[in-house]
Design goal:
It contains 20 helices and 16 strands. The protein is α/β, with parallel strands linked by helices and 469 residues long. It has 4 domains: 124 residues, Rossmann fold (3-Layer(aba) Sandwich), CATH 3.40.50; 163 residues, P-loop containing nucleotide triphosphate hydrolases (Rossmann fold); 84 residues, Helicase, Ruva Protein, domain 3 (Orthogonal Bundle); 56 residues, Arc Repressor Mutant, subunit A (Orthogonal Bundle), CATH 1.10.10. The strands form 5 sheets. The chain has a 5-stranded parallel β-sheet with strand order 2-1-3-4-5, with helices on both faces. α6 packs parallel to α7, α17 packs across α18 and α18 packs across α19. Adenosine-5'-triphosphate binds next to α7 and α15.
Length: 469
């Protein structure tokens, strides 16, 4: 708090124009603002002054926003830190939240959103100061999850993943088929303190009622014909780790009742045994169908829903985030394209246009299959429209509602990949070049070109992939 009672924010950015712009906007919104032009400078300042909040860019060299977060979190864990970055990559979003960032704002910055966030940060700081309960620093090694997505909707999902990873809250993941529900469940587990223990997935629609009990609870030796040995059930296997209940909406009424009891009591009894065993698992459930609707229809227990949906994550359909399609397509191409004798390396621009314009009822899984199939059929290094399923093209062309403009896709993707890699190596050009498999000279040439491009404002939109209805 400054002398005149205003909350004080430290704005950190090595780009002077950005720094001034942020400082001015926050100043007008009623904050007192100080600035730093480098991570180290910020660290020194924050050591001397108790700021109400810090707003920092992530991409700074050599001391990045994440480094700053890390250091400040150790010395002054009560100081909320909000991070900014141009490339809303999954890794940084999850990493930032996991390392304890208060929030994460993707560029280009929406000033209203920024101001709201900073107000919340300052309030949070007050709350903490009031009851002096410092939260624990979260120190878990990061895991590389192959989660792709840069759209606003997915960045929100990744933020949530980072947040819920730090607790053992029950999480319900809802979304259409193929949107990545299971992948998200695994990401939560992998980023949690339970990562060293098991992730046990149960597909509730695949277990018949007659087997449910022994599958879930295990059985004692001799409890029924064929039970020659004592067997631990899946709930016991998951103890210490995470239990993933896939398609939980398909659980029978009997199954729902049994599950509810376990969640209430925290213990199970093997079939044919009188002994209870304590189980401690984190529960993540997923459903294609809306559970609230099932409750309304009398097909799902409301009390069970309340045990499952402490936090709900809604997976957006792929057609709601077309800007993720090129990224995902390139990702799957890299996965399957290398396996061929003549590697398949890219998409023709019309092929990419078709992919972006399609409505993807099967979401990411369908996209993955389309790319895999195209790679199998392709006779060239570049995938063309002819390699895509004819049925898909019919739905794309002539449907002006889905017509999409996607200028300079490949160049933009390459540029994005390069800058992302540079960010993840904290600006180390030699490592970046090595990781990208290009010479340092090539890297310098590319960076030179991006810098030149930046002068022409129209190119900037390439990065996000402009989608016009
Ligand atoms: N954001 C993403 N990044 C990379 N791969 C993804 C992403 N989302 C989904 N996938 C891939 O798409 C496929 C489908 O994902 P997943 O199985 O998690 O979907 P789901 O929502 O559980 O589908 P269903 O409801 O049909 O079970 C998987 O191969 C997964 O790896
Ligand atoms: Mg699934």
């Amino acid at each position: 708090m400054s002398l005149n009672g205003l909350p004080v924010i430290l704005v950190v950015d090595d780009d002077e124009r950005n720094r001034e712009m942020l400082a001015e906007a926050l100043g007008q919104a009623g904050f007192e603002v100080e600035t730093a032009s480098a991570g180290m400078e910020a660290l020194n300042k924050a050591g001397a002054v108790a700021y109400d909040a810090v707003l920092s860019d992530i991409r700074m060299v050599p001391f990045s926003g994440l480094d700053l977060l890390d250091s400040l979190h150790k010395t002054t864990p009560e100081m909320p830190i909000v991070l900014l970055t141009a490339f809303g990559s999954v890794d940084t979003a999850i990493q930032a939240m996991k390392q304890g960032a208060f929030d994460y704002i993707p560029k280009p910055v929406n000033l209203d959103e920024l101001i709201l966030t900073m107000k919340r940060a300052v309030e949070y700081r007050r709350l903490i100061e009031d009851n002096r309960s410092l939260q624990q620093a979260f120190s878990e090694r990061p895991r590389a999850a192959s989660l792709i997505g840069q759209s606003k909707k997915m960045v929100e999902v990744f933020k949530l993943v980072g947040k819920v990873s730090r607790s053992r809250t029950a999480v319900l993941i809802q979304g259409e088929s193929g949107t990545g529900k299971e992948l998200i469940a695994r990401a939560i587990h992998d980023n949690s303190t339970r990562a060293a223990n098991r992730f046990v997935a149960i597909n509730c629609s695949a277990i018949p009622d007659s087997l449910l009990e022994s599958e879930l609870f295990g059985h004692a030796k001799g409890s029924f014909t064929g039970a020659h040995t004592t067997r631990r059930g899946l709930l016991e296997e998951a103890s210490g780790g995470t239990l993933f209940l896939d398609e939980v909406g398909d659980l029978s009424p009997a199954g729902q009742a049994k599950l509810l009891r376990v969640l209430q009591e925290g213990e199970i009894r093997r079939v044919g045994s009188n002994e209870s065993v304590r189980v401690d698992f984190r529960i993540i459930a997923a459903s294609r169908r809306n559970l609230a609707d099932l409750v309304a229809a009398g097909r799902f227990r409301e009390d069970l829903l309340y045990r499952l949906n402490t936090v709900t994550i809604l997976m957006p359909a792929l057609r709601e985030r077309p800007e993720d399609i090129p990224l995902l397509a390139e990702f799957f191409l890299a996965r399957y394209g290398d396996q061929k004798e003549v590697p398949v390396t890219s998409f023709s621009s019309t092929a990419m246009k078709s992919l972006v314009g399609y409505s993807w009822p099967g979401n990411v899984r369908e996209l993955e299959h389309v790319v895999e199939r195209a790679v199998t059929l392709a006779s060239h290094a570049i995938l063309s429209v002819d390699d895509l399923p004819p049925a898909m093209l019919q739905k794309t062309s002539g449907n002006s509602k889905h017509a999409v403009m996607f200028p300079g896709t490949l160049k933009a993707l390459q540029r994005e990949q390069v800058l992302k890699m540079l960010e993840s190596t904290h600006g180390n050009k030699e490592r970046t070049a090595r990781l990208l498999g290009i010479s340092r000279r090539t890297l310098y040439r590319l960076l030179e070109r991006y810098r030149a491009d930046k002068i022409q404002p129209s190119v900037e939109s390439d990065v996000q992939g402009t989608v016009e209805p």
